Amino acid sequence: MSILQSEIAVGSELFEENKQALLTQLDEIRAVQNKSIEKSYAAKPKFDKRGKILPHERIRLVLDADSPFVELCGLVGFNMHDDKDGSEAGGGIIAGIGFVSGVRCLVSASNSAIKGGTMSPMGVHKSLRLQQIALEQKLPIVTLAESGGANLNYAAEVFTLGGTTFANQARLSAAGIPQLSVVHGNATAGGAYQPGLSDYVITVRKQTEMLLAGPPLLFAATGEVATAEELGGAEMHAQIAGTAEYLAENDADAIRLAREIFDHLNWKEQTHPIIENYKEPRYPADELLGIIPANPKQPFDMKEIIARLVDDSDFLEFKQEYDDLTVCGWAKLGAMHVGIITNNGPITPQGAAKTAQFIQLCEQTNRPLVFLHNTTGFMVGTDAEQNGIIKHGSKLIQAVANCSVPKISIVVAGSYGAGNYAMCGRPLAPDFIFAWPNSHVAVMGAAQAGKVLRIVAEGKQKASGMEPNEQMLDFLEQSTAMKLEQQSTALFNTAMMHDDGIIDPRDTRKILIFLLQTIYEAEYRMLKASKFGVSRF
Ligand code: COA
């Protein structure tokens, strides 16, 4: 056993200062989350009057009472498109992985309390990501739908990719992944195809309006006069059109039916058993808050983080003597074997070569990889270049891109430049990627980017025979740095969906174990695929 020994002075002035800084960053994220939840709940009187349950409550009711819920992409679209005051983050959808009647599945609800649950451009990107996760992790999908369809202020950005979500639904059904939709209210135009392409549909009496054209549009287009009930009501779909398999009396009844259908899915019965018996780390998760220096320029040892994440703090390091800026080693998380890759600085040629070798060893015995990002990027300078940093860095990127073992990334601190690719950032398609509130992801450090543009502009001024304009150069340097700093924060990156969400550092182990169990379940599940999926006749 190789038990990590912590050298952190828990409770010291420095520890408390670091902790305070991280808690402040976490509070900022929580404030954004709460703002959008509060905005949803502000619609309660309207929902009550209509006899409806709010979207967050629908999610709560459909999940098993003791189910965990790992929310996905919760803050996408923050301050983007129609979200003018930062209160509408989430892309119009609330989604995550949890258990419904004992079935691990992807649960998603239209956030119909905000903008009628309409689909913004980031909402479409989120839908595509959710479908990708469901397909890769073989997760059945429950959708609690109530959406006015495309957000018409951004119709052009939503239209084409929106169509891909429908194609994906057909592919998911054909892959053998069941999709269930409850139509709690509006499902207009293209939005009607979301339930239409689901394998099980539940409509809700006096609420469902699933139609291609509502009464005003129908009259304008054809002159026909019809009620919404006749065109797309719950009874009509259950009794006449046959679009729905089940007719519920109200929201709660529909959710009860959804749970009952999942109970009969024959899914959990074919789930590979998960090992429940393992040791907790020797150091409490709370201490994760005080390790990362409030000053990002100060180095710290990522093994202090690992000691608080892995079973029994047991970590067998690989080739420690060869390069200590990149750390690789084996550990267990919830009794599941993993290879951990992390950084204590830039990635050197040796570090890149060692990591590529380590990945091959994990590939050889199917050990999932956990990347804990803390890198300023690949090493630069004559020494690194002459030692083949491009060659070795490319080899590492090849290994990350082509290895077939599951990959999970946690952006713990900085993740810069191609180092982000080498550490399996979003572009390298990890199975899951989550970020800590203090994390930064960018092409390079903000200050360095400012300096680069300053040097380039100064060079141009000199080449054209001008005296360098210091005032203009100062402005260029500062404004560039400020912009990049703002665009590298955790909140900015999560809004752009460069990760699957921001997490409380103290939850990292719990979330990693949950995700590894999700992956493990998927690996052992046999799907009964077909060529065309389930059609309704
Ligand atoms: N695009 C952009 N914004 C929309 C929208 C759309 N398709 N549909 C509704 N909204 C906005 C409203 O402007 C309103 O914005 P506000 O909160 O800033 O005032 C908000 O969503 C809520 O709309 P409201 O009509 O008050 O809520 P509701 O719960 O009574 O009804 C709908 C919701 C979706 C049923 C209704 O707004 C509707 O029928 N919208 C049009 C649907 C449609 O035809 N879509 C075609 C898409 S292809």
Automatic annotation (TrEMBL):
- Specify the species: Acinetobacter gerneri DSM 14967 = CIP 107464 = MTCC 9824
Q: Which residue windows are coiled coil?
A: none
What InterPro entries does the record point to?
AcCoA_carboxyl_beta (IPR034733), ClpP/crotonase-like_dom_sf (IPR029045), COA_CT_C (IPR011763), COA_CT_N (IPR011762), MCCB/AccD1-like (IPR045190)
Q: Which Pfam families match?
A: Carboxyl_trans
Please state every residue range assigned to the domain named CoA carboxyltransferase N-terminal: 22-277
Does the keyword section mention Metal-binding?
yes
Identify this protein by name: Acetyl-CoA carboxylase carboxyltransferase subunit
Identify the domain of life.
Bacteria
The alphabetical list of record keywords is:
Metal-binding
